[in-house]
Each structure stands twice: as structure tokens, then as C-alpha cells.
Request: fold
Amino acid sequence: MSGNSTDSVLIVDDEPLVRESMAVYLSDSGYHVLLAEDGREGLRLFREKLPHLVICDLRMPAVDGLDLLKIVTSESPETPVIVVSGQGDMADVVTSLRLGACDYLFKPIVEMEVLEHAVRRALERGHLLRENLQYRQKLELANRELERSLDVLEEDQEAGRRIQLRMLPETPLQVDNFTFSHRIVPSLYLSGDFVDYFRLGEHRMGFYLADVSGHGASSAFITVFLKTLTTRIQRHYERRKAVSSLSPARILASINQELMAMALGKHLTMFCGVIDLQDNHLTYCVGAHFPPPILVTQDASGEQVRPLEGMGLPVGLFAEAKYEDIEMDMPERWTLVAMSDGVLEVMEGHLPEKEARLLELVQSGRRSVEDLSQELSISGNVEVPDDIAILVVERSE
Reply:
């Protein structure tokens, strides 16, 4: 079987007859052969020519075969070395193999086919080692590039997180005898849940809790859009002296149209309300938000706790979606608690049990952002499977 003409073999042997006989046979077999008459010359040729295989005698003057073997396996572990010797000492065999020789042949080599078989097997091993080395180098390069990309991504995500946190309103915010407070717990760096509350003219406050489908940067982008839209609405009312009523249903319809036009493949559930601060009147709209917001009212007959009515369709999913305003005259004291469905992911039990547990928490008086976070075990920096948002609006006498 002929060798590969691109494969070079370095033969290092101080016996001219042995060296020449191996060279002639391997040359006839198609290999490119390099010759060295001692270890020192062999080492020079190895470093200059970088052969694919080294065949070296064990006993040579100046630099012997074991020294040459150590250097070759140290400088080029992927280059196979075949040791040949006429000593026949088993200790030399063991030492050579321990130092990295891939084969050991005894002189005289009577059957040159044995040599060729050893050469062919050693070269195959060398090719595999070189390929593995190239794959490893490529993998290490890819890993370094991936690490750099991850570092850049993490920096971008952290920058995005800081921007998103700055978009959130102050908490708690006191406006007349109303208190607005919130908490956002993202499952990743960026959150697809968002909360906002803002003045609409002199005597109205708008607020909403939105839960964008999915997680991460693409969902967080929609929260930027929501903030931009509500800021635009707020500035519109700041410029007007006479303020007409604002419909949460129209806000949801407008957001629905803009999301459909952008075709981002994102939709959201949303709870949006407007409070008339003078008349203590609430107008709200629900766009498929779940779990339903919980309203606590207090009057002469006592305290009542109930989920708010209204479901509606998701926002940004159906072009012809219709939304409905629900209006309520409120008592002197009331509290509204809204949460995203991420809270359900950190609770145990089936869905009806989770809904009942949320209602029970609010009924028991645990209705502040801090109390709810404590009861749901989401206080501090915690890992959660889904984004979580809590919004509490409270009116005191």
C-alpha cells in the first residue's frame, strides 16, 4: 500500500546501512524521507522541517533516542515517534512508551512490511492528533469569541436594565390622599412586565400594569413603547386647560392598533385605570389580564374584598379587538391590588387554589407591596420563572 506523498518521515539513526535501507523502502512506498545521522542533526531537521513522523534509534552519540523522544513529544505532542533499537531491553521498551513513543521496533528489521505498517499506523494517529488539535484550537477560539460576545451582551442587558428601572415611576408616590406603589421582579435582566402611574391634568391619575408575552429584550422593548405612549398622553393633557374624561378602553385600543401595525409578534395583557381625584371615581379597562385585580372597599357596612370584573381580549393579537370601560364611584377608603401572572408561577397548588390564596392574602390585610412580596417569597434578589409585577393603589381618608 503506497504512502501519502505529502507525508514526511524523519529517520534518525547513526548506522548508515539501517538508515539507508529504511529510507529506500519508505521512499519507494511514496513517503518524503529526511535523514539524520545523529540525534543533534535529527533535532535540527525536526525543528526546521516539522516532519509528520520521526523514526529514531535508541542509542546514539550526543543526543540519544530517549532525549530526542522527550524533546519531540514536548514540543510537538501531535508528532508520532517510532523508536527502533537492537538492544531488545524490555526496560527500554517500557521507558520509550511511557515517554510518548507510539511504537517500538527491534533491529534488524527483516520484514520491511512491518516497518511500513508501523509507519502507516503512526501517521494515521498523527493525523488524528493534528485534526483534534485544530478542532480544539478552533473550539477555544470560538469559546473566546463567545465569551466576548456574552460579556458585551451582559453589558448591554445591564445597561438596558438600568434604563428600564429609570422608566419606572417613583414608589411609593403620594398624590393627595392616594398612594401608588409597585414592585417588578424580572426573570432575566430585562422584564416584560411593566407598571406606570402618572398625572393626567390637574385632577386625574392614570395607571396600568402590563404583562408582555415572552421574556428578555424583545419583550422589554414593548415596555419602552408603552412608556413612550403614556408619556405622549400625559403631555397632551398637560398642555390642555380643560381636561375631558380619558377612556382606558381607548388607550388599549390605540395600543392594540399600534402593536398590530408594528408586526413584532408580541402581545400583552393589560389592566389600565383612570382615577378622578376630586370625585373619587374609577374608570378601568381589562385586556385579558390575569389574575384579576382585587379591590378592597371600606364603608359603614364594613370591609369588602372582591376581584374586579372584566376580561377583554389580549392587546396586540386581534386587529378588531374591542375594549370596554367599567366605571365605579368609590368609597372614602379603598385599596386596589393588581399582579401579573408571574405570581402564580411561584405559588403551589392548582390554579383555583392559587387564586383563592391571593384573595385570602388581601383579605387578611397583607395588601402592601412589601407584605405581598414577603408572603410570596419574592423579597430581595430572587430567581423567578416568570416576570412578576405588583401594583397597589390605596386611598385613605
In short: The first strand starts at residue 8 and ends at 12. The two ends are 100 Å apart (CA to CA). The longest helix spans residues 112-167.
